[in-house]
Amino acid sequence: MSELDLAKLLEFSISLAKEAGELISQGSDAILSSEADEVDDKKNSVDLVTKYDKAVEELVNQRIKKAYPTFAFVGEEGTSASGSLPVFTDEPTFCVDPIDGTTNFVHGFPFSVISIGLIYKKRAVLGVIFNPFLDWLYYATEGNGAWLVKAGGSPTKLPLHPPRPLPSLSKALIAVEWGSDRSAKAIQARADSFSRLAGDGKEVQGGKMAHSLRSIGSAAMNFAMVASGQLDIYWEIGCWPWDVAAGIVIVQEAGGLFNTSDLSLHNGEVTGDSTDKVLTGRKYIAIRPISDAKAEKGKETQKRLVKEFCETIV
Ligand code: IPD
Ligand code: CA
Ligand code: CA
Question: CATH no. for residue 137?
Fold first, then answer.
């Protein structure tokens, strides 16, 4: 397979995200005005799915099959039933979450997006995240920066403001999520970690608690907001490749650090790379672009913060 034409693929993916966004908006109107309960459960009563998740995935899959018949396709609705992680090959693979933030979608909380990632040679190389409720479109391709287009305006390079320093976790606005594993063990582990970040009555890294914690209910939007600099850190246990494929590229191209927070995968080192281990790590952390006189020093600061973070949450 020759090298990919990323510019053409980006144009295609943006137009597909917009088309899918229309279907998501129509689905939202229908679901919120319907008297019937149109929400089904997947593995438990907080893991939700609707006919719109499936219809959007079907639409996206069909469009991709027609335009790029040799590309592989991994979509949440077609893949997650198996309960196993997808295996990525070297072939180009679209990795799609048709609606990321289904809980938001069924409640009318306007943070639901379509997330389209492209994986090539086990690296995430293209990401498009579109929120049709806010009309915010985020996109990035490897080597070309990350961009946001708000409501048909002009593309703005991410981060939205010049990167500021982030000296310690004590200065951070941190996004966390409850996820759908509500077993006592999983909930207790999250609650313990969250309370450590929020202070826990004790001092945390840097001598103080984080500024605050947020949960907006969409992994992809969390990554996009970290890339924008509106969130300092996003951390979650239990994400799947379709939650992260587009976000990886957008965060990294903005100058942020994206990695699995399972440091053991890297023998205790934070590598910041985008290998298949990062794609299938399940535990993720993203840190916003950080200023520093030398870019290298900024990267070192990001890595130090990941270490501090991992030490704080356990
Ligand atoms: C979920 C959302 C949520 C995150 C979960 C994801 P879904 O995706 O991104 O914010 O906490 O881990 O599974 O089910 O709405 O596509
Ligand atoms: Ca998702
Ligand atoms: Ca989904």
Answer: 3.30.540.10
Q: Output the domain CATH number for residue 278.
A: 3.40.190.80
Domain termination site, one of 111, 137, 157: 157
State pLDDT tens for residues 204-233.
555 568 899 999 999 999 999 999 999 999
Q: Kindly identify the ligand whose nearest atom is closest to the C-alpha of 99.
A: 3
Counting ligand 1 atoms within 8 A of each CB, the residue from 80, 215, 243 with the most, and so the one to mutate, is 243
Please tell me whether residues 200 and 292 are part of one structural domain: yes
Is residue 243 lining ligand 1, measured as CB closer than 6 Å? yes
Tokens of 89: 């090959």
pLDDT by residue (tens digit) across 72-117? 999 999 987 777 889 899 999 999 999 999 999 999 999 999 999 9
Residues 185 and 93 reside in one and the same domain? no
pLDDT tens across 156-179, in order? 999 999 999 998 898 899 999 998
- Work out the number of other CB atoms within 10 angstroms of the CB of residue 205: 20
What separation in Å is there between the alpha carbon of 101 and the centre of ligand 2? 6
Q: Which residue has the tokens 């086990």?
A: 122
